[in-house]
Model the fold of this input.
Amino acid sequence: MSAGAASREADQAFRHDALLYAGDEQFLAGTLPFIRAGIEAGEPVLVAVDRVKFALLESALGRDARYVQFADMREIGGNPARLIPAWKQYLSGRSTPRRRIWGLGEPAWAGRSDAELVECRRHESLLNLAFAEDAPLSLLCPYDTSALPPAVIEGARCSHPTILDGGARSASSTYCGLAALAEPFSEPLPVPRAPVHELAFDGDDLADLRRFVARRARAARLGEARGDDLVLAINEVVTNSVRHGGGSGILRTWQERDVLLCEVCDAGLITDPLVGRRRPDGARAGGYGLWLANQVCDLVQVRSDARGTVVRVHMRMS
Done:
Protein backbone atom coordinates (compact mmCIF):
# COMPACT_ATOMS: atom_id res chain seq x y z
CA MET A 1 0.00 0.00 0.00
CA SER A 2 1.37 3.44 -0.94
CA ALA A 3 1.92 6.19 1.62
CA GLY A 4 -0.87 8.22 0.03
CA ALA A 5 -3.31 5.31 0.18
CA ALA A 6 -2.36 4.63 3.79
CA SER A 7 -2.96 8.28 4.65
CA ARG A 8 -6.39 8.23 3.00
CA GLU A 9 -7.28 5.02 4.85
CA ALA A 10 -6.16 6.52 8.18
CA ASP A 11 -8.57 9.41 7.63
CA GLN A 12 -11.56 7.15 7.07
CA ALA A 13 -13.92 7.31 10.04
CA PHE A 14 -15.22 3.74 9.78
CA ARG A 15 -13.29 0.64 8.77
CA HIS A 16 -15.22 -2.61 8.61
CA ASP A 17 -13.29 -5.82 7.91
CA ALA A 18 -14.38 -9.46 7.91
CA LEU A 19 -11.76 -11.92 9.16
CA LEU A 20 -12.11 -15.37 7.57
CA TYR A 21 -10.46 -18.04 9.70
CA ALA A 22 -10.60 -21.78 10.39
CA GLY A 23 -9.94 -22.91 13.96
CA ASP A 24 -8.32 -21.35 17.00
CA GLU A 25 -4.83 -20.90 15.55
CA GLN A 26 -6.06 -18.84 12.62
CA PHE A 27 -8.45 -16.94 14.89
CA LEU A 28 -5.56 -15.80 17.07
CA ALA A 29 -3.33 -15.08 14.07
CA GLY A 30 -5.99 -12.77 12.66
CA THR A 31 -7.22 -11.04 15.81
CA LEU A 32 -4.09 -10.49 17.93
CA PRO A 33 -2.39 -8.03 15.52
CA PHE A 34 -5.61 -6.03 15.38
CA ILE A 35 -5.99 -5.88 19.17
CA ARG A 36 -2.31 -5.05 19.72
CA ALA A 37 -2.48 -2.25 17.16
CA GLY A 38 -5.16 -0.58 19.26
CA ILE A 39 -3.23 -1.16 22.49
CA GLU A 40 0.01 0.20 21.04
CA ALA A 41 -1.83 3.30 19.81
CA GLY A 42 -3.13 3.88 23.34
CA GLU A 43 -6.72 3.78 22.05
CA PRO A 44 -9.81 2.01 23.47
CA VAL A 45 -10.25 -1.65 22.50
CA LEU A 46 -13.49 -3.63 22.96
CA VAL A 47 -13.66 -7.35 22.19
CA ALA A 48 -17.08 -9.03 22.00
CA VAL A 49 -16.74 -12.81 21.57
CA ASP A 50 -17.91 -15.89 23.44
CA ARG A 51 -16.29 -16.95 26.71
CA VAL A 52 -14.18 -19.69 25.11
CA LYS A 53 -12.51 -17.11 22.89
CA PHE A 54 -12.19 -14.77 25.90
CA ALA A 55 -9.87 -17.31 27.43
CA LEU A 56 -7.89 -17.82 24.22
CA LEU A 57 -7.29 -14.10 23.79
CA GLU A 58 -6.57 -13.38 27.45
CA SER A 59 -3.98 -16.15 27.53
CA ALA A 60 -2.31 -14.99 24.31
CA LEU A 61 -2.30 -11.32 25.32
CA GLY A 62 -0.90 -11.95 28.79
CA ARG A 63 -0.52 -8.72 30.76
CA ASP A 64 -1.74 -6.71 27.77
CA ALA A 65 -5.24 -8.13 28.33
CA ARG A 66 -5.75 -5.51 31.04
CA TYR A 67 -5.93 -2.86 28.31
CA VAL A 68 -8.87 -4.59 26.63
CA GLN A 69 -12.54 -4.44 27.60
CA PHE A 70 -14.23 -7.79 27.01
CA ALA A 71 -17.96 -8.40 26.51
CA ASP A 72 -19.84 -11.68 26.06
CA MET A 73 -21.25 -11.58 22.52
CA ARG A 74 -23.83 -14.24 23.36
CA GLU A 75 -25.31 -11.91 25.96
CA ILE A 76 -25.15 -8.55 24.18
CA GLY A 77 -25.74 -9.90 20.67
CA GLY A 78 -28.15 -12.79 21.12
CA ASN A 79 -30.54 -10.54 19.23
CA PRO A 80 -28.30 -8.96 16.57
CA ALA A 81 -30.46 -5.82 16.50
CA ARG A 82 -29.05 -4.89 19.92
CA LEU A 83 -25.48 -4.67 18.66
CA ILE A 84 -25.49 -1.30 16.89
CA PRO A 85 -26.85 0.43 20.03
CA ALA A 86 -24.22 -1.43 22.10
CA TRP A 87 -21.39 -0.19 19.86
CA LYS A 88 -22.87 3.32 19.92
CA GLN A 89 -22.97 3.27 23.71
CA TYR A 90 -19.35 2.13 23.88
CA LEU A 91 -18.29 4.93 21.55
CA SER A 92 -20.12 7.61 23.48
CA GLY A 93 -17.81 9.20 26.03
CA ARG A 94 -14.73 7.51 24.56
CA SER A 95 -14.52 9.23 21.20
CA THR A 96 -12.36 12.32 20.79
CA PRO A 97 -11.17 13.92 17.55
CA ARG A 98 -8.49 11.86 15.78
CA ARG A 99 -8.69 9.11 18.44
CA ARG A 100 -9.67 5.79 16.91
CA ILE A 101 -11.68 3.13 18.71
CA TRP A 102 -10.99 -0.56 18.01
CA GLY A 103 -13.77 -3.14 18.13
CA LEU A 104 -13.71 -6.88 17.53
CA GLY A 105 -17.09 -8.59 17.36
CA GLU A 106 -18.19 -12.06 16.25
CA PRO A 107 -21.98 -11.99 15.81
CA ALA A 108 -22.29 -15.19 13.71
CA TRP A 109 -21.38 -18.50 15.29
CA ALA A 110 -22.12 -22.19 14.77
CA GLY A 111 -25.39 -23.14 16.45
CA ARG A 112 -27.21 -19.95 15.57
CA SER A 113 -30.65 -20.55 14.02
CA ASP A 114 -31.17 -19.85 10.34
CA ALA A 115 -33.30 -16.81 11.24
CA GLU A 116 -30.59 -15.45 13.53
CA LEU A 117 -27.93 -15.85 10.85
CA VAL A 118 -30.12 -13.98 8.36
CA GLU A 119 -30.44 -11.11 10.84
CA CYS A 120 -26.68 -11.21 11.56
CA ARG A 121 -26.09 -10.52 7.88
CA ARG A 122 -28.56 -7.64 7.95
CA HIS A 123 -26.85 -6.27 11.07
CA GLU A 124 -23.45 -6.39 9.39
CA SER A 125 -24.79 -4.50 6.37
CA LEU A 126 -26.44 -1.88 8.55
CA LEU A 127 -23.21 -1.21 10.42
CA ASN A 128 -21.91 0.47 7.25
CA LEU A 129 -24.82 2.90 7.41
CA ALA A 130 -24.98 3.38 11.18
CA PHE A 131 -21.32 4.41 11.48
CA ALA A 132 -20.75 6.01 8.08
CA GLU A 133 -20.41 9.45 9.65
CA ASP A 134 -19.57 8.51 13.22
CA ALA A 135 -16.44 8.68 15.36
CA PRO A 136 -13.35 6.89 13.99
CA LEU A 137 -14.01 3.17 14.52
CA SER A 138 -12.14 0.11 13.28
CA LEU A 139 -14.34 -2.97 13.48
CA LEU A 140 -13.10 -6.51 12.80
CA CYS A 141 -15.71 -9.29 12.46
CA PRO A 142 -14.39 -12.88 12.57
CA TYR A 143 -16.14 -15.68 10.63
CA ASP A 144 -15.20 -19.33 11.17
CA THR A 145 -15.14 -20.89 7.71
CA SER A 146 -14.81 -24.38 9.22
CA ALA A 147 -18.06 -24.10 11.20
CA LEU A 148 -20.41 -21.71 9.39
CA PRO A 149 -22.45 -22.48 6.23
CA PRO A 150 -20.99 -21.23 2.93
CA ALA A 151 -23.94 -18.86 2.50
CA VAL A 152 -22.95 -17.07 5.74
CA ILE A 153 -19.37 -16.64 4.53
CA GLU A 154 -20.62 -15.27 1.22
CA GLY A 155 -22.85 -12.92 3.21
CA ALA A 156 -19.79 -11.67 5.07
CA ARG A 157 -18.10 -10.88 1.77
CA CYS A 158 -21.18 -8.94 0.64
CA SER A 159 -21.55 -6.92 3.86
CA HIS A 160 -17.89 -6.00 4.48
CA PRO A 161 -15.91 -3.63 2.26
CA THR A 162 -12.66 -5.44 3.06
CA ILE A 163 -11.69 -9.03 3.84
CA LEU A 164 -8.80 -10.50 5.84
CA ASP A 165 -8.08 -14.02 4.63
CA GLY A 166 -4.88 -15.98 5.14
CA GLY A 167 -3.08 -12.91 6.43
CA ALA A 168 -3.89 -10.81 3.35
CA ARG A 169 -6.25 -7.81 3.40
CA SER A 170 -8.13 -6.98 0.21
CA ALA A 171 -11.24 -5.21 -1.01
CA SER A 172 -14.26 -7.50 -1.25
CA SER A 173 -15.22 -7.96 -4.89
CA THR A 174 -18.83 -8.73 -3.85
CA TYR A 175 -19.38 -5.94 -1.31
CA CYS A 176 -22.89 -4.67 -1.96
CA GLY A 177 -22.45 -1.12 -0.65
CA LEU A 178 -24.97 1.16 1.01
CA ALA A 179 -27.27 1.15 -2.02
CA ALA A 180 -28.25 -2.47 -1.32
CA LEU A 181 -29.38 -1.90 2.27
CA ALA A 182 -33.06 -1.86 1.35
CA GLU A 183 -32.98 -5.28 -0.31
CA PRO A 184 -33.11 -7.45 2.85
CA PHE A 185 -36.03 -5.29 4.01
CA SER A 186 -38.20 -6.87 1.33
CA GLU A 187 -36.85 -10.42 1.12
CA PRO A 188 -39.62 -12.83 2.16
CA LEU A 189 -39.65 -14.60 5.51
CA PRO A 190 -40.07 -18.40 5.60
CA VAL A 191 -43.64 -19.64 5.74
CA PRO A 192 -44.74 -21.03 9.13
CA ARG A 193 -43.92 -24.71 9.65
CA ALA A 194 -46.70 -25.35 12.17
CA PRO A 195 -50.43 -24.62 12.62
CA VAL A 196 -51.12 -20.89 12.87
CA HIS A 197 -53.49 -19.10 15.26
CA GLU A 198 -54.74 -15.86 13.70
CA LEU A 199 -56.47 -12.75 15.02
CA ALA A 200 -57.53 -9.63 13.11
CA PHE A 201 -57.21 -6.37 15.05
CA ASP A 202 -57.88 -2.65 14.93
CA GLY A 203 -57.64 0.15 17.46
CA ASP A 204 -60.63 -1.12 19.45
CA ASP A 205 -59.28 -4.65 19.94
CA LEU A 206 -55.99 -4.16 21.80
CA ALA A 207 -57.19 -5.55 25.15
CA ASP A 208 -58.51 -8.68 23.43
CA LEU A 209 -55.25 -8.96 21.51
CA ARG A 210 -53.15 -8.80 24.70
CA ARG A 211 -55.25 -11.56 26.23
CA PHE A 212 -54.85 -13.61 23.04
CA VAL A 213 -51.04 -13.32 23.19
CA ALA A 214 -51.01 -14.13 26.91
CA ARG A 215 -53.00 -17.32 26.24
CA ARG A 216 -50.61 -18.39 23.50
CA ALA A 217 -47.63 -17.70 25.78
CA ARG A 218 -49.17 -19.82 28.57
CA ALA A 219 -49.98 -22.63 26.12
CA ALA A 220 -46.33 -22.61 25.01
CA ARG A 221 -45.18 -22.61 28.66
CA LEU A 222 -43.11 -19.53 28.05
CA GLY A 223 -43.02 -18.59 31.72
CA GLU A 224 -44.69 -15.65 33.41
CA ALA A 225 -41.92 -13.07 33.02
CA ARG A 226 -41.16 -13.89 29.37
CA GLY A 227 -44.87 -14.11 28.64
CA ASP A 228 -45.33 -10.61 30.03
CA ASP A 229 -42.40 -9.40 27.87
CA LEU A 230 -44.00 -10.91 24.78
CA VAL A 231 -47.38 -9.30 25.51
CA LEU A 232 -45.66 -5.94 25.98
CA ALA A 233 -43.66 -6.27 22.76
CA ILE A 234 -46.62 -7.31 20.62
CA ASN A 235 -48.79 -4.56 22.11
CA GLU A 236 -46.13 -2.01 21.08
CA VAL A 237 -45.82 -3.42 17.55
CA VAL A 238 -49.59 -3.57 17.08
CA THR A 239 -49.97 -0.02 18.40
CA ASN A 240 -47.53 1.04 15.66
CA SER A 241 -49.73 -0.74 13.13
CA VAL A 242 -52.83 1.09 14.34
CA ARG A 243 -51.07 4.47 14.28
CA HIS A 244 -48.92 4.16 11.17
CA GLY A 245 -49.96 1.01 9.31
CA GLY A 246 -53.48 1.76 8.18
CA GLY A 247 -55.30 1.32 11.50
CA SER A 248 -55.66 -2.47 11.41
CA GLY A 249 -53.85 -5.69 10.70
CA ILE A 250 -53.45 -9.41 11.35
CA LEU A 251 -51.66 -11.11 14.24
CA ARG A 252 -50.50 -14.69 13.69
CA THR A 253 -48.85 -16.98 16.24
CA TRP A 254 -47.35 -20.45 15.97
CA GLN A 255 -44.77 -22.67 17.63
CA GLU A 256 -41.68 -24.19 16.01
CA ARG A 257 -39.76 -26.55 18.27
CA ASP A 258 -38.74 -24.46 21.30
CA VAL A 259 -39.68 -21.08 19.83
CA LEU A 260 -43.00 -19.22 19.99
CA LEU A 261 -43.41 -16.87 17.03
CA CYS A 262 -45.77 -13.91 16.73
CA GLU A 263 -46.17 -12.04 13.46
CA VAL A 264 -47.90 -8.69 12.93
CA CYS A 265 -48.91 -7.77 9.36
CA ASP A 266 -50.29 -4.41 8.27
CA ALA A 267 -50.55 -2.15 5.22
CA GLY A 268 -47.89 0.34 6.32
CA LEU A 269 -44.46 1.02 4.85
CA ILE A 270 -41.23 1.38 6.86
CA THR A 271 -38.46 3.23 5.05
CA ASP A 272 -35.86 3.63 7.83
CA PRO A 273 -33.35 0.73 7.60
CA LEU A 274 -32.24 1.38 11.20
CA VAL A 275 -35.73 1.20 12.69
CA GLY A 276 -35.60 -0.39 16.15
CA ARG A 277 -31.82 -0.02 16.34
CA ARG A 278 -31.61 3.58 17.56
CA ARG A 279 -31.94 4.19 21.28
CA PRO A 280 -34.91 6.58 21.73
CA ASP A 281 -33.79 9.89 23.21
CA GLY A 282 -37.07 11.75 23.52
CA ALA A 283 -36.03 14.31 20.91
CA ARG A 284 -38.49 12.95 18.39
CA ALA A 285 -41.84 11.23 18.59
CA GLY A 286 -42.05 7.51 17.93
CA GLY A 287 -39.33 4.93 17.61
CA TYR A 288 -40.11 3.16 20.87
CA GLY A 289 -42.18 0.20 19.72
CA LEU A 290 -39.63 -1.81 17.72
CA TRP A 291 -36.82 -0.65 20.01
CA LEU A 292 -38.67 -2.13 23.01
CA ALA A 293 -39.49 -5.33 21.13
CA ASN A 294 -35.78 -5.79 20.33
CA GLN A 295 -34.85 -5.31 23.99
CA VAL A 296 -37.19 -7.95 25.42
CA CYS A 297 -37.45 -10.52 22.60
CA ASP A 298 -34.90 -13.05 21.38
CA LEU A 299 -35.20 -11.98 17.73
CA VAL A 300 -37.23 -9.44 15.76
CA GLN A 301 -37.45 -9.60 11.96
CA VAL A 302 -38.84 -6.65 9.99
CA ARG A 303 -39.81 -6.79 6.33
CA SER A 304 -41.49 -3.90 4.51
CA ASP A 305 -42.28 -3.00 0.91
CA ALA A 306 -45.12 -1.62 -1.16
CA ARG A 307 -47.32 -4.59 -0.18
CA GLY A 308 -47.10 -3.79 3.55
CA THR A 309 -45.04 -4.52 6.65
CA VAL A 310 -44.41 -7.74 8.55
CA VAL A 311 -42.83 -7.84 12.03
CA ARG A 312 -41.99 -11.34 13.24
CA VAL A 313 -41.01 -11.82 16.89
CA HIS A 314 -39.25 -14.92 18.25
CA MET A 315 -39.32 -16.02 21.91
CA ARG A 316 -37.51 -19.16 23.06
CA MET A 317 -39.16 -21.28 25.72
CA SER A 318 -36.05 -21.73 27.83
Observations:
- The longest strand covers residues 248-256.
